[in-house]
Design goal:
By secondary structure, the protein is of the alpha/beta class. Helices cover 35% and strands 18% of the residues. The protein has 11 helices and 15 strands. The longest helix is centred in the C-terminal third of the chain and has 17 residues.
């Protein structure tokens, strides 16, 4: 398959919409990461996403919409209270888990009776959805397990020859995937942390918001069936081994220096990622850094971990999965 490169101008947006409407696959930029889109209501098209990514079929996908009419076409029984919460945070980098409309095929939701829905704020993404005229299922546009793509080049590296087209946009501004908030439970529950944090959601909800307990567990059971993408399998992993070093700041730096020196002495190429507790900066740079270090041929990446703010917690969630839960406490 030859993958077309489409510019995000009027003609390009129209072309991307036509490809999606006809059952094709198009990668496009959102404010979070690049997504790999297909018609969410087309079983054959959504199956092609799993095939292109090498993605497990029980890993649910997020459905992207650009209007309330589209939302009503994929979710059912949306309450006024749920709509009030969504209206204050949409469009934006947050996904809401709602009860599924029967029109959405099981392949899109990983067999769940709920559906994850997002209304992206990035211009190109919203215009492509409108041009397609259908809701778009769109996980991140990378091979399954690899770091999510934040640039057009990242997408081409993984998807060239596997999909119909890539919309060539600028680098994403947030850098990690959307927050996923379950609105089907008694208490709104964060299934995946992201740029929109727990404290921000609590301001909007005007009450309690909790984290799903699975965020603090290693998903090593076959009975683990998350409602959110990216929670069950090893994710965000470069070719290099990733090791997180956790503890007092000074001790962490000392331990990383020692570990790096020992590795280099054995002929192992190492790199260190230390964002000094700056969550927003880490979010923007982390996936891009992992991909660049792979291009540089690094064998082992040491990550300094210590106290994190709320966005930092969201990045830490990705770091732990990148490392396959390999954490050294010092």
């Amino acid at each position: 398959m030859k993958t077309r490169i489409i510019l995000p101008d009027t003609d390009g947006i129209s072309e991307a919409g036509a490809i999606l409407r006809s059952g094709g696959l198009v990668a496009f930029p959102t404010e979070t990461v690049y997504g790999l889109g297909a018609n969410a209501l087309d079983t054959v098209a959504t199956k092609r996403i799993y095939e292109a990514k090498g993605r497990p079929s029980d890993n649910p996908m997020i459905v992207h919409v650009a209007s309330i009419d589209m939302l009503n076409g994929v979710a059912s029984g949306v309450t006024d209270a749920q709509k009030a919460i969504m209206s204050k945070l949409w469009p934006g980098p947050i996904t809401f888990v709602l009860h599924k409309n029967p029109a959405v095929p099981d392949v899109t939701t990983g067999g769940l009776d709920t559906v994850a829905v997002r209304w992206p704020s990035r211009r190109e993404a919203a215009e492509i959805i409108v041009a397609a005229g259908v809701p778009i299922a769109a996980p991140s546009a990378n091979l399954s397990g690899k770091p999510s793509p934040t640039t057009f080049e990242d997408v081409a590296e993984d998807m060239d020859g596997r999909i119909d087209a890539i919309v060539k946009g600028e680098q994403t501004v947030i850098g990690i995937e959307s927050t996923v908030l379950d609105l089907t439970s008694d208490v709104p529950t964060i299934l995946r942390p992201g740029f929109i944090t727990k404290s921000r959601i609590e301001e909007v909800v005007g009450g309690e918001v909790k984290y799903d307990p699975s965020l603090f567990q290693k998903p090593d059971s076959d009975d683990f069936h998350p409602k959110s993408p990216g929670m069950k399998y090893k994710h965000y992993a470069p070719k290099a081994d990733v090791k997180i070093v956790e503890g007092d700041k000074a001790a962490v730096h000392e331990a990383i220096a020692k570990l790096s020196a020992e590795a280099v002495a054995r002929g192992i190429k190492t790199a260190v990622l230390d964002y000094e507790g700056k969550g927003d900066e880490a979010a923007v740079r982390y996936f891009a850094n992992l991909r660049q270090l792979d291009r540089d041929g690094v064998d082992v990446i040491y990550i300094a971990s210590y106290d994190w703010d709320e966005v930092g917690f969201s990045v830490m969630n990705r770091m732990v999965k990148s490392a396959g839960y390999d954490i050294l406490e010092v």
